[in-house]
Amino acid sequence: MNHLLLLGGLGTGEVIIIALIVLLLFGGKKIPELMKGIGKGVKNFKDGLSDVETEINKDIQKGEKTDTTK
């Protein structure tokens, strides 16, 4: 995955312009709160994916156990 968040060819200049726009829209005091919220969201998403993966693995293991008893 060579693209940053699937945005294509995003160069340094574009990233700086986006950062300045975000700074103007939200202000310096709101950005840490915004990043904290994004971080919590990403963490919850990863935890959810992990939970789903463990449930799938449990179901697969149960299926293998029932197949070997037949």
- Structural class, by secondary structure, is mainly alpha
Given the C-alpha coordinates, what overall shape results?
Answer: elongated
Question: What is the H/E string?
Answer: H
Helix content: over 70%
Q: What's the story with the biggest beta sheet? A: none
| Rounded radius of gyration (Å) | 21 Å
List low-confidence stretches.
none
Number of strands: 0
Q: What integer is the average pLDDT?
A: 83
What fraction of residues sit in β-strands? under 5%
Number of helices: 1
Span between N and C termini?
A: 43 Å
Can you describe this structure?
Helix content is 81%, strand content 0%. The chain has 70 residues and is mainly alpha-helical. It is elongated and about 60 Å long. The mean pLDDT is 83.
Per-chain topology:
Blueprint: H1 12-68
List keywords for this structure.
mainly alpha; 1 helix; 70 residues; 81% helix
Characterize this entry briefly.
It contains one helix and no strands. It has 70 residues and is an all-alpha fold.
